[in-house]
Design a protein that fits this description.
The complex is a heterodimer of chains A (383) and B (363).
Chain A: H1 7-23, H2 37-50, H3 68-81, H4 89-101, H5 104-116, E1 121-124, E2 140-144, E3 147-154, E4 165-171, E5 183-189, E6 195-200, E7 209-220, E8 224-225, H6 231-236, H7 239-245, H8 249-266, H9 272-300, H10 309-331, E9 341-343, E10 346-348, H11 351-356, H12 367-378
Parallel strand pairs in A: 1-4
Antiparallel strand pairs in A: 2-3, 3-7, 4-5, 5-8, 6-7, 9-10
Chain B: H1 7-21, H2 25-30, H3 40-48, H4 67-79, H5 86-96, H6 106-110, E1 116-119, E2 134-138, E3 141-151, E4 158-165, E5 168-175, E6 181-187, E7 193-206, H7 216-249, E8 251-252, E9 255-256, H8 261-287, H9 295-320, H10 331-343, H11 348-358
Parallel strand pairs in B: 1-4
Antiparallel strand pairs in B: 2-3, 3-7, 4-5, 5-7, 6-7, 8-9
Classes of the chains: A alpha+beta (383), B alpha+beta (363).
Amino acid sequence: MFRHDTPTESAFRTEVRVWLEANLPVSLRGRTTRPPPDELMPWYHALSRKGWIAPHWPKAHGGMGATLNEQIIMTEELARVGAPQLPAQGLNHLGPLLMEFGTDAQKARHLPPIISGSVIWAQGYSEPGAGSDLASLTTSATLEGDHFVVRGHKIWTTWAHHADWMFALVRTDPQAQPRHAGISFLLFDLRSPGVTIRPIKTIAGDDEFAEVFLDDVVVPAENLVGVLNDGWRVANALLTYERLGTSNPQYLLMALERIRTMARASGIIASPAFQDRLAATMINVTALSAVFSHAVDLINNRRNPGPQMSMVKIFATELLQQLNDLLVEAAGGHAPQVQPVATELGEVDVSTPFLQSRRVTIYGGSSEIQRNILARRVLDLPN
Amino acid sequence: MELNLTEEQVLMRDSATRFIEAAGPKVARGFRGSDPGFQPARLREAADLGWLGILVPEAAGGLGLGLTELALMLEQSGRGLVCEPVGFAAIAAFALSAGPKPHPMLESVLMGKALVVPALHESAFGDPLVPNTQAKGQDAAWRLTGAKAFVCADGADGFLVSADASGRTALFHVARDASGVALTATETVDGRRLWTLRLVDTPAEIVPPHPSSRSAVEALHDLALFSLSAELLGVMEKAQEITLDYLRTRKQFGRAIGSFQAIQHQSANIFVRIEATRSLVFQIAVNNDAASLDPAMAIAAKAKASEDAIAVTQNCIQLHGGIGFTDEHDIGLYLKRAMLLSSQFGNATAQRQRYVAIVGLSA
């Protein structure tokens, strides 16, 4: 709403919209939970065949080489049509990391299967004893000749039970001080002997996450990304983009539409008290759109907002939760039901997005960690 | 986040920063109870810098700049607790320049010799675009009867008054010394006075709209919302700066209090509010023209800035502890200025009430 398409961008938007309308199965639209792989991956493959699976990747690696604005248009149009969330660990995290830090052999082996969708990746960062304090992770990788032996336990691993490979942070120097100086970045095949995966059912009833037990898993040394003990830097290099990704206003605009439909159907829309809350929330969504456009504008001009992006993550995720609070209020007595609420304006899923939204202020660095980052690295407050 | 500004815009901001070096809390205190509550010579200085004509086309003697430049100037004005009404003077000048030929007052307004301020509101929560003030007459001869509230009339030589002219809302210029004008003042916590302007059969001239404005009253009203938002942004920023300095130096339990996590997280919350308002104000600025500002955007900015500025400046006092509650310390002046600016042209609740109507929320 704060960024106007150029004529070229506008033509691109139309092309994307028309194709999505024609090709995205109706059964996959507006889903509030991620569909299982047998339903979802054919859609991944269709986008891949169209050449649109990786708008942000350079053409040399099979991507679209799209501008940042074109990427935003893609996400806006995907959100508009209600496209399901794809497994994105390969596309958004590992792919860009390998392009920056990977060897030619690693790129040649791992990038094409991400584009084609033949390999699904999982991210192994958190551990039971290392959540917010990620640098205290203890999963160890010991170099023995031409391979590492990995032993430990990863948790909150999105879609690990559907994934083929995992990229992980592992401890390669137990004595290192500071602790993050002894961490390396490893890739491994989840079909390897010694890997056990157990899905975790969330409060929203889905099993987005899993835990991964690693019992003397043998990983070839060539699967190390970057330099030994430099994994922390590798993992953190692309955080700006990750935080920008979590704050795309289109998801909030979709949530807003859900509230307005629910509030009209339940009749609460006529209440001035509700209207005031809804107006306040909509104004904040407008502000978030402005923050997002501002950040994109800076990044387009090669002025990375750096640690200030923590502000964007806090604002976007806490706002999404406020929106879902309002959705629950709008639904009144229907709110706790598991199934979507049937209204004369269509079905509205209330409890799933509400419960799911609890996780956004926890993953990718909790709101508390983001506030620590702002205080120390932006506001220059003392330790 | 930093703004993506042109070189000229950076220069403009730098000149505003230099201007406010001669302002600040000490100067603002000096105007408490004085009449007018600012220094007319400083208004002329602002005029010399071109600021009062910042939006006025070059052909009419202004700088012909846009909302970004206006916001940059007013952000600094808010930071400096500037008492001269540069924002109101600048948007009034733009209104006076909007018609087919500039209003006769424009020249002296641009020179800072005469001050014209908006007088649109009649009550705290009434619809500012549907005035009760009545206008009778035609062409060049109009007579107004009614009352306007919360007018920043200190030092004003004229007012831009909204009135109902046979069912149509129009904008009029009323001279302070015109017959039937009566003014009564109310002291505010900020030291600046707000006035009630009563008009009884007072002669007035109509002020026509800019060709791309929906109406002269709406255009002036929406510009006022935007201007006040930019000024509130500056108030918050400076209060944050003062507070962070204090948190780095004040020691308790043998450590700088800014090292405590409870304090750090409060500070981060302040930062989140300010940055969201800054992005909102400046994204609106780059995507809108002064004559055709999107009313929903102007309302959004004023609602957000009003709410955030009160919250931020309150928190800044809390983070100062006892010293922040004293009149002697400057931090309280920012809360008071935030109270004044947040209330002008409708507080956050009033803005949201209009937002509901404008975006058709209840349907």
